[in-house]
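Protein in question kept in full:
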Amino acid sequence: MSDPERAEATETIARDWWKSAVVYQVYPRSFQDSDGNGIGDLRGILNRLDHLERLGVDVVWLSPIYRSPHADNGYDISDYRDIDPVFGTLDDFDALLAAVHDRGMKLVMDLVVNHTSDEHPWFIESRSSRDNPKRDWYWWRPPREGFTRGQPGAEPNNWESFFSGSTWAFDETTGEYYLHLFDRKQPDLNWENPEVRAAVYEMMRWWLDRGVDGFRMDVINLISKHPALPDGPVRDGHPYGDGFAFTAGGPRLHEFIQEMHREVFDGREGLITVGETPGVTMEEARLFTDPARREVDMVFQFEHVGLDHGVSKFRPRPLAPGELAASLARWQVALAESGWNSLYLSNHDQARSVSRFGDDGDYWRESATALATMLHLQRGTPYVYQGEELGMTNAPFSAISEYRDVESLNYYAQDVAGGTPPAEAVIGLGAMSRDHARTPVQWDASPNAGFTTGEPWIAVNPNHDRINASAQYGDPESVFEYYRRLIALRHELPVVAHGSFEQADAGHPAIFAFERVHGDERLLVVTNLSSVERGPVFPVELAVRWTGAQPLLTNGPGGEPTATLAPWEARVYASAEAVAASMVRSDRSFGG
């Protein structure tokens, strides 16, 4: 490589620093309570930063901490430029931001601009009269022709909300309906109005000027609606129509995102931008993440977390062997030439991954670490959701009174109203409710898991007596220490951050195997994603290439690549060139 080529490569790696980074998502309400009121807060996060530094993550992403009535736990924002008192103050935020930066980490805010709270001053003005200057900041429509306003069927169209029921709420003050794709207290902003966009961009610049390092953009692919707002198709047995085709990936979406990039991010270095894009196709994801288009660095796609949805999210189906791996591999191929993947199994909207995709009984540790191995070592930026690094599981909720999430409560009410017995309606929540991700982080075996000295806002999982951070620190066999070694591999081995992805046929769909290749450097990852012992059978060329290799990292007995895999065993092998490259890059140990 010539000196100019080497300089250009170094500049590219520095600019794309997030390719070798690991992001940790904090759901503030459930992370750590500092004042005994049972709700996590900013001072609590500050007090637990040593945990994140010890884990080795690079970026801390905070779910919403803005002022909010909390109809959807903070994703309904009433003031974008203030901290909700339940979490603290702007001074508390500044102290947290400074402490994150002092530890060499970056901080990302959650950007929720598809909708606001109905208590936001913008909406209060908008609903005050039909001729208010902010009336067109939201989507207002008269009743359907021929129907009496406020009566069933009078809604402007037949769309169903993501949280059940109609997407339209009738407002007595002006006699019209406003659009809310989510809860009725979350009215959708009208991005067709340039004043709305200008106000959003100004707010984003305000946070960047304060020192934040980027944004995760909530449901950002919903901001451009089809202006006609037509009826959607009605599926058998459903009272409402599906409007997703008219709300996701709308006609001006990429225009808006490119404008946002120009108005907010141009001229600023070292940031990270992530778009949450439910229902995004591979073709659309390439448009979002192609660096030449100047939109966002990466997107969250939802294909793999929708695989187990049956007739609905809350009627899940079992996955076939290899189904999850096949989905992830498809996305690796789709974004191989341009664009970038976000790698995740868990977040605040998903049930716990070890309970959902693994085996949280007999093979709890093994499946928690196997899932992490196959995910973190793909091409993309990995995300760790709080507690995932401890192997936290779904909670044993059995009654509707134990749930807090608006999506779960609305689904249950609708299901029961439709004739489903209550005991049956609650079963699906036990597998898929978002509340499973929102139980408090399990710090130790003390009452309330060290999360609070008060009454927690949602019950602590009773298995915190055995699954907790304190018990796992320093234990080389623990899930936490395994995550530390796994994260270090991304930092130390250039092939992990920058290599290509090549899936390998291992002879059985339950064995997910792939190579990462970066010049002469190679990495081989072999994972048995099942609770049955399996023997891999590789193509001759691959088997010869890795003959005699011993794992650099494993969660089980180990052995060379063709050796039989124990249930949920994961093994990682590195070529001599890959190990040598890591030694040149840094003298930090990456474990084994």
Q: What stands out?
A: Confidence is low (pLDDT under 50) at residues 586-592.
